[in-house]
Each structure stands twice: as structure tokens, then as C-alpha cells.
Specification:
about 325 residues; mainly beta; Neuraminidase; four-stranded antiparallel beta sheet; 1 helix; 27 strands; about 0% helix; about 55% strand; globular
């Protein structure tokens, strides 16, 4: 029998359930079992994936914990550019929206531990390109994206263990497009974007992933406004890479707190439209500006990126995800 606590637990609290003999974590809304799995068990290390871009359907993969060139994984259900950002659980990778002779609303998914082609998962609330996305272990959250009316504030979500269409989550504090997201196990953070043609924003919002509701102010990007950047995280730090206006700057935030971004270092080149994927220790940034380059850096130290290897082809406006990011 479960006995009520005198105090409400804080998000991230851990307990041992004597009835189920299972270790559990409080996600801010409920107690949920801690899965006995890891990237090492699933794929021999954290697997990074890049999906689509430049109106192609290609999926590549590589082991973030090593260095080397990417390998062909399979294909999306269709060719698409301006793909934005992917999201993932331990076992499933996702890519939503994009552009191919029109804005797309479909969500693709595939099994990360294997290789092969993606399948249809469902549809977004509306057709969008350049989405921002994040996830914890069970829920994927899609933030804005652009269409014929590029500045929107819509947040939607899916349950990654099922298939089906996205549902409404809430709204960002402002309308914007071409934004990117990072996550811890409990909190999602939406960073930067465009609020109109040629007008970028330094706005940073946050949500609690396991609930539904509107985003709240987190802080601001310091020193620059940006869109078409890439972002990834471990459970502690959210990393912001490059972007428009064209920059090679890497910045970071501490996800558990509120506050402005901090300078981290530099990429090996200026880039827009890159993808990103992370392990608990490393960030990788790839493509962008029709490049095939993959670079990496250590998330918990400050410094510049180094060469990792190459994608299977040069690409821009691509998406990325991994089975070892901070939301897991």
C-alpha cells in the first residue's frame, strides 16, 4: 500500500516503492518507474541521428561517444527540407513537419536501436516547417514552427509510446518561428527564434513537460538574438549553437534555474540551419550551410568545438535527435 507523504515531493525526488520493488522518480505530477535501460544497453553508446533537410529523405546515424563518419540509417516517409528539430525517447526517434512543395504536418518515427525506414506516426495540429521540439522519456513536445503566417505561439504534444495525432499543450509567451528547444527530465526550454521577417528575438520560455499549460519567462539570450540555430542538452545544461545572423557562437543555459544564457565557446565555422544531438557528456552539431561537417564539444566544460567526422552528404535545415539527451 502507498501511504501519503506529509509534504508534496519536489520534481526529481526518488523513492523505493516496496509494493512494486521498483525505484521511482517524481516527475512534477506523479511518481513514475525508473527504467533500467541506457544508451549503452540499447546501442552500445548514445546514438545521434540527423533527419532530412534540403528536401531529402535521408537519415544518418553515428555514435556520439566516439568520433568518425556517419552511416546511412534509412529514409523518412518522404523528402523534406526546413525540418527544424527532432525529438526522441530511449528507443524511438521522431521528425515532424518540414517543406516539400508546401508545408507538411506529418510526424515520422523509427526505432533507434535498429536501422531502417521511418513510418507514419500521426499529424501535427497544423502544417509547419522549422519546428522546435523536445521530449522526456514518454512525451514529445513540438513548439511553434513556421507557415504562411510565420509567427505563431502554439505548443503541441504526443505520447511517444503510441501513435496518433498531436494534441494542444498551451502557448508560448510570444509568437515566433524557427525556434529551438532543450530539456531536462522535468523541464522544457524554448530558445530564440524569429518574430517577423528579419526580426529575431532573445526570448527564452520554459514549460513543465509532464503537465499542460502556457510557457513562462525563463530569461534571455545574452549578446545576440538568433533564429535557425540548433540546440541540445544533457540533464543540466542546454546548449545553443550558431544561428542567424550567421554566427559560430556556442551559448548555454542551466535548465533547472531561471536566467540568461552564458558564453561557452565557438563552433569551427559560422552556421545556420544545423542539427544537433547530445549524450550525457557530449554535444554534436552537424550540417548547416550545405556542409557535411560534424563537430563536438564537452557539455560541462567551456571551450571550442572540434572535428568529429562527416555526414553522408552535405545538408542544411536538418533535424537531429539522440537516445541519450537530457530529457531521458
Amino acid at each position: 500500500m502507498e501511504y501519503p507523504s506529509l509534504d508534496k515531493p519536489t520534481a526529481g525526488a526518488i523513492r523505493f516503492n516496496t509494493d512494486s520493488s521498483q525505484l521511482e522518480i517524481y516527475d512534477g505530477n506523479q511518481w513514475t518507474g525508473i527504467l533500467a535501460t541506457s544508451p549503452e544497453l540499447q546501442t552500445g553508446g548514445t546514438r545521434g541521428l540527423r533527419m532530412g533537410g534540403n528536401t531529402v529523405d535521408v537519415i544518418d546515424y553515428f555514435n556520439i561517444d566516439t568520433t568518425g563518419n556517419a552511416i546511412d540509417f534509412g529514409n523518412l516517409t518522404g523528402s523534406r527540407g526546413a525540418t527544424g528539430q527532432g525529438f526522441a525517447s530511449r528507443v524511438r526517434g521522431f521528425q515532424a513537419g518540414g517543406y516539400n512543395s508546401g508545408y507538411l504536418n506529418n510526424i515520422d518515427f523509427f526505432s533507434i536501436p535498429t536501422t531502417g525506414n521511418a513510418s507514419d506516426f500521426g499529424d501535427m495540429l497544423a502544417s509547419k516547417q522549422g519546428i522546435g521540439a523536445l521530449s522526456d522519456r514518454t512525451r514529445g513536445v513540438i513548439c511553434t514552427g513556421s507557415d504562411a503566417n510565420p509567427a505563431v505561439n502554439v505548443i503541441m504534444f504526443v505520447t511517444m509510446t503510441t501513435t496518433g495525432n498531436a494534441l494542444d499543450f498551451g502557448d508560448l509567451s510570444i509568437s515566433k518561428s524557427n525556434t529551438k528547444c532543450v530539456a531536462s527530465q522535468t523541464r522544457g526550454v524554448n530558445i530564440g527564434g524569429a518574430i517577423g521577417t528579419g526580426n529575431n528575438t532573445d526570448n527564452i520560455d520554459f514549460i513543465t513537460i509532464s503537465t499542460q499549460g502556457n510557457a513562462a519567462d525563463f530569461g534571455n539570450l545574452v549578446g545576440t538574438t538568433r533564429q535557425s540555430h540548433s540546440a541540445c542538452s544533457n540533464a543540466v545544461r542546454g546548449m545553443i549553437n550558431g544561428g542567424s545572423p550567421s554566427t559560430n557562437e556556442i551559448a548555454y543555459i542551466t535548465i533547472a534555474t531561471l536566467g540568461d544564457s552564458n558564453d561557452f565557446g565557438d563552433l569551427t565555422r559560422t552556421t545556420e540551419g544545423s542539427g544537433a544531438a547530445s549524450s550525457p557528456t557530449r554535444a554534436t552539431v552537424f550540417g548547416g550551410g550545405s556542409s557535411n561537417e560534424i563537430v563536438y564539444y564537452q557539455i560541462m566544460t567551456a571551450g571550442n568545438a572540434s572535428d568529429f567526422g562527416d555526414l553522408t552528404g552535405s545538408i542544411s535545415e536538418t533535424a537531429g535527435c539522440s537516445n541519450g539527451h537530457g530529457g531521458l
